[in-house]
Amino acid sequence: MSKAKSPINEALENIFLKNILLKSIRAENHHFDVELNPDIKYKVLLKHKVIQSSLLESTDHSQHLLRVSLSYGVKWVAEEDASKELAIIEADYMAEYKLKKVISDEAVDAFCLKNTGHNVWPYWRELVSTTTQRLGLPNLTLPLQKPVKES
């Protein structure tokens, strides 16, 4: 008797990265200058979420594509009042994957929630690093992120 594949393993065997696209970006510095105001107290808030996924099929049913929309953000706010936004960087990405064959909805969901963020994270991490420098913000290097694997 063979053991059924877990949804994430089904996905990993059949999904291959095609492209990662930056769909939109917003970056603003609202007079946040640590050089002129070195005593400013602030905190950094992060956002990362999968927005949606879409399975597409060619008209002849020979090719399948998975598109996943993700949204990221980093916001600097005043420590004493988190509603006081000092600076913000937000970006939306689309990760595109080719499918070797059609897979279950459970496999698609597991892959989108556990692995697409790992694929897009280096692009987001680089964008934050270079954009903070260009906006004159305090240096922010996001940590590395490792893929989630089933135990």
Automatic annotation (TrEMBL):
<keyword id="KW-0813">Transport</keyword>
<comment type="similarity">
    <text>Belongs to the SecB family.</text>
</comment>
<dbReference type="Pfam" id="PF02556">
    <property type="entry name" value="SecB"/>
</dbReference>
<keyword id="KW-0653">Protein transport</keyword>
<keyword id="KW-0811">Translocation</keyword>
<protein>
    <recommendedName>
        <fullName>Preprotein translocase subunit SecB</fullName>
    </recommendedName>
</protein>
<dbReference type="InterPro" id="IPR003708">
    <property type="entry name" value="SecB"/>
</dbReference>
<dbReference type="InterPro" id="IPR035958">
    <property type="entry name" value="SecB-like_sf"/>
</dbReference>
